Amino acid sequence: MSTIFLTLDKKGRATLPEEVRAELGVAGGDFVLLERTGRNTFELVPAALVPRDQLWFHHPEVQRRIASAERDVEDGRVTRTRSVADTEAHLSRLKVAKPRR
């Protein structure tokens, strides 16, 4: 992409050209962060707001545990149960088992 010049209006606003929006993958109403770089320039970064009740999911420990569980499934380390009673018994055993790291 070549150099693009933007003109600011009286309130300091600019419109991103269509090709820039397409390249960033953003559209009207999307959030974009303006971040300062190490070279004292700025870069636009597409962003999304996370509702407060979903912040727990983005915690590094939760992400680590999800990644570990996904590896277990991929490697076939799963337990299949055939009834609600079997499932409850399995979950009870897990509660007393030491977590593996």
Q: What does this 3D model show about the protein?
A:
The chain has 101 residues and is an alpha+beta fold. The chain folds into 2 domains: 1-49, Pemi-like Protein 1, Chain: D; 52-96, no CATH class. It contains 3 helices and 2 strands; from the N terminus they run αββαα. Strands 1-2 form a two-stranded antiparallel sheet. A hairpin with a 5-residue loop joins β1 and β2 (42-47). The mean pLDDT is 91.
Comma- or semicolon-separated keywords:
Pemi-like Protein 1, Chain: D, single chain, alpha+beta, 101 residues, 2 domains, two-stranded antiparallel sheet, 3 helices
The strand order across the widest sheet is 1-2
Low-confidence stretches: none
Predict the CATH topology of the largest domain. Pemi-like Protein 1, Chain: D
What Rg is obtained from the alpha carbons, in whole angstroms? 24 Å
Count of the separate structural domains: 2
Order of helices and strands, N to C? HEEHH
Q: Label the CATH architecture of the largest domain.
A: Ribbon
CATH class of the largest domain: Mainly Beta
- Mean pLDDT across residues: 91
Oligomer: single chain
Sketch the major β-sheet: 2 strands, antiparallel
Q: What percentage of amino acids are in beta strands?
A: 5-15%
Helix content: 25-40%
How far from one another are the termini?
46 Å
Main structural class: alpha+beta
What would the principal axes of the Cα set say about the shape? elongated
> What is the tally of helical segments?
3
Number of strands: 2
